[in-house]
Amino acid sequence: MQDQVNEKAVALCIKGGKITGRLLAKAMRAFLQQARASPKTKPGRVSMKSLTREGASLSHIEINDPGVKQFDRIARKYNVRYYPQIDRSKNPPRHIIFFKAKDADALTAAFGEYSKITLREKERKPSVIASLEKFIEAAKSIAAPVRNRSKGGHEL
Fold first, then answer.
1. Does residue 75 lie within any of the structural domains?
2. How confident is the model over 53-110, as pLDDT tens digits?
3. Can you say whether residue 79 is alpha, beta or left, with left for phi > 0 and alpha for psi between -120 and 50 degrees?
4. How many domains are there within the chain?
5. pLDDT at residue number 145
6. pLDDT tens-digit profile of 33-46?
7. Nearest alpha carbon to residue 113 among 76, 81, 59
8. Domain of 85?
9. Looking at the domain assignment, is residue 78 inside a domain?
10. What percent of the chain shows pLDDT beyond 90?
11. Counting Cβ atoms within 10 Å, is residue 70 exposed (0-12), middle (13-18) or buried (19+)?
């Protein structure tokens, strides 16, 4: 019995000078209306079961880039629920993203932003550390080796 009571407990905070039964009942009604009206679905990555449970038809898009984590942030921004799936039967593996057909416009906008980000990353300048390593290797091949004085050689 105690477990059932704990599962259905709700915290309600009311500011007021004198709290009556009517005021408490009115606050509970407002809370319940808000709880019923608010959607319980969250945007972003979800399971295939929860996508199919809601009854809307599913669509899918195939992407070549495996960076689904970047897409997740953008999908949450556009309030899109999706399910990523990897088809490993092909070489290289295909990445398929399933979503609801009613979210097509939002998903188009999300994919537009995602493609801009991935193109920017490909066009970035090479890192400074990588270019320094190339110059270090080139300098090592140009410089003469250091000779030891004890053998009668010269130091540079």
1. yes
2. 766 678 888 877 666 677 788 888 888 888 888 888 888 788 888 887 677 788 788 8
3. left
4. 1
5. 60
6. 887 776 666 777 78
7. 76
8. 44-122
9. yes
10. 1
11. middle
Amino acid, res. 114 = Y
Question: How high is the pLDDT of residue 89?
Answer: 85
| Paired sense of beta strands 94-100 and 81-87, if any | antiparallel
If you average pLDDT over every residue of the chain, what do you get? 77
Q: Which two tokens stand for residue 141?
A: 């091949």
- How far is 98 from 50, CA to CA, in rounded Å? 12
Distance (Å, rounded) from C-alpha 78 to C-alpha 110?
Answer: 6
Domain with residue 91: its CATH number is 3.30.1370
| 23 lies in some domain | no
Alpha-carbon span 66 to 69, nearest angstrom: 9
**Token pair for 97:** 């993203």
Tokens 């801009």 map to which residue?
A: 116
**H or E element in which residue 45 lies:** strand 44-45
> What is the crossing angle of helices 104-122 and 68-77, to 10°?
130
Pairwise pLDDT comparison (48 vs 102), residue with the higher score: 48
- Please report whether residue 89 resides in a domain: yes
What φ, ψ does residue 26 adopt, rounded to 5°? -65, -40
d(CA 81, CA 143): 59
User: Which residues are CB-neighbours of 78 under 8 A, at least 6 positions away?
Assistant: 43, 106, 107, 109, 110, 113
Quote the pTM value: 0.48
